[in-house]
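Hello,

Following up on my earlier ticket. Below are the two sequence lines again, exactly as submitted.
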Amino acid sequence: MTRYRVTSSTPFAGYPPGAVFDADLDPELEQRAIERGSITITEQAEEGSDDAEADRAH
Amino acid sequence: MPKRIALTDHVEVDTTDLSDFARQVQVTMSHAQIDVSGFNPAGSNEYLAGATTESVQVDFYGSYGTGEVHQTLYPIFKGRTVVAFAWRPDGANPVGVNNPELRGNVQVFDYGPGAQRGAEDTFQVTFMAVDAAGLDFFTT
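Thanks for your patience. The regenerated structure is below:
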């Protein structure tokens, strides 16, 4: 799970400009969206997310 | 569903909401009409439905800002990339039986923005369905 911020003036994946959201985007979609400035990655594997909790359990 | 004035349509290309930059959507779905007529007393033609072609033509306002029309569509065209497309009549409400959403994987084969002095900057883009799933209307 990756945390993204919508950086363009257009909504992305249903999220308005400026919104922060967690998603597992297709890598190619993620790359295109970052290159055109629609989103930026803010954090990988957020604390409290399922992935982070799974990591702590191991 | 009552008659409507198209005002709140939702147009999404490659997960980017371009609704505010679109002013017209025209869906075209057609089956090739194959003539399989033989001789018959009435002289009537007989047809079978052949291959299906599906596309959506959208009128966009030319816009060159971050994540806007040009920055979304040109890389898709240039890279010959297949992306998701979606359109539904009422973007303010979720997809449903009375608000079906057209979805499919599409490709842009022609890209031609332009400009005319003193006029709004608009151009048409045709999104062709390019896989076996085609374009279809979903209610969920």
